[in-house]
Amino acid sequence: MGLDSYRAKRNFAESPEPAGKARRSPSGRKPRLFCVQKHLASHLHYDLRLEHNGVLLSWAVPKGPSLDPATRRLAMHVEDHPVEYGEFEGVIPSGYGAGIVMLWDRGTWTPEGDIDAGLEKGDLKFTLDGYKLKGSWVLVRTKGRWAGAPTDGRSWLLIKHRDHWSSGELDIAAFAPLSVKGGGDFVDILSADTPEIWTSSRPAQGGETGALFDRIVREALARRANRAPSAGGTGTGTATRARKTAAAPPGGRRAKSR
After folding, report:
1. Please, are residues 135 and 105 in contact by the beta-carbon 8 Å criterion?
2. Residue 158 — φ and ψ, nearest 5°?
3. Three-class SS state of 185
4. Residue 181 three-state SS
5. Helices and strands, counts by H and E, the chain
6. 17-52 pLDDT, tens per residue?
7. What sign results for the dihedral spanned by CA atoms 169, 126, 76, 148?
8. Dihedral angle at the C-alpha atoms of 191, 197, 199, 203, nearest 10 degrees?
């Protein structure tokens, strides 16, 4: 696909996403980069990205990866992303993909066979070595015969192969929900940015996603307010001032630091 479609959908004057450029793929047997980004936009989904030919091949997985070999997860093939996107975590304030992006997993991947042949056939086998996802996997194109998916060739299934890393009991998304980059959740990411942008209009308004946005925005605003500078401009928040007051000795004088 290249990066033309990726760039055409974004206004980089407003979006913090990297514009990027195609890179030369690693040669020989060197493993390639992969990442999974947890993306809360109009719906919560997970974006699987595999480095190939200088870009990140990308699939949107609505329900996220499953470690259960019996579970087939719909994965929609979307536009290629720049390799720099593999480190992106932050808030997209408006436009295409508006929402919060968390770097949920990252590591390296190794193809099990020829990549281009696998993509052409619609049967791409690979091994992941990430923080959360490991072992052998496959992406299989469905030709749209899956839960009403479109018939334009974008519909694939992500399936875990049975191996040492597979599990029919562990829900990895629920077990390990936090960022591998900052260690936080969506509230942490939004509160470090500008939660005020969604006080009135959010990427999702109703249903479960809208309710999730409401909660995250409220918590992010509260967390940001707790870190706000004092009126005197000392740079200390209310909670910090309270701790300092409590620590002051009788008479209101503080001991000099040495």
Report:
1. no
2. -100, 120
3. coil
4. coil
5. 6, 9
6. 777 776 665 545 577 999 999 999 999 999 999 999
7. negative
8. -100
Name residue 21's amino acid: K
Residue among 174, 142, 182, 180 nearest 158 (CA): 142
Which of 190-197's residues contact partners 24+ apart within 8 Å by CB, and which partners? Answer: 190/91, 190/100, 190/216, 190/217, 190/220, 191/219, 191/220, 191/221, 191/223, 191/224, 191/227, 193/90, 193/91, 194/91, 194/93, 195/220, 195/221, 195/224, 196/221, 197/91, 197/93, 197/94
Please report, for residues 71, 100, 157, the alpha-carbon distance to residue 219 in angstroms, rounded to integers and kept in the order given.
34, 14, 35
Helix residue ranges per DSSP H, the chain: 4-8, 115-121, 172-175, 186-191, 207-226, 238-247
Using CA of residue 200, residue 203, residue 207, residue 208, what is the dihedral sign?
A: negative
Contacts 24+ apart (CB under 8 A), 136-139: 136/112, 136/160, 136/161, 136/163, 136/165, 137/161, 139/59, 139/75
* Residue 231 dihedral angles phi and psi, to the nearest 5°: -65, -30
Question: Considering the entire predicted model, what is its pTM?
Answer: 0.81
Cα distance between residue 78 and residue 80, in whole Å = 7
- Distances 91 to 103, 113, 186 between C-alpha atoms, Å: 12, 37, 9
Query: 56, 23 in Cβ contact below 8 A?
Result: no
Beta-sheet pairing, 73-82 with 90-92 = unpaired
pLDDT digits (tens, 9 = 90+) for 163-178: 999 999 999 999 999 9
Strand runs (DSSP E) across 8-98, as ranges? 32-40, 44-52, 55-61, 73-82, 90-92
Neighbouring-strand partners of residue 111: 126
Per-residue DSSP letter, 126: E
